[in-house]
What we know:
The protein is mainly alpha-helical. It has helices spanning 2-6, 19-29, 40-50; strands spanning 12-14, 33-35.
Amino acid sequence: MAALQRRGVxxxxxxxxxxxxxxxxxxxxxxxxxxxxxLPADKDKKVAGRSPAG
Length: 54
């Protein structure tokens, strides 16, 4: 994560897990942005909406 962040890449995690669990994992991994409790069918929309090409 650190190498990506040094290059200016904002790291995000999209998960179906509960907010509390997702925030704990993100903190351990130094992830910049968390989208929790996202249904599988909606995950592609979250990624497409966040990517520079999307």
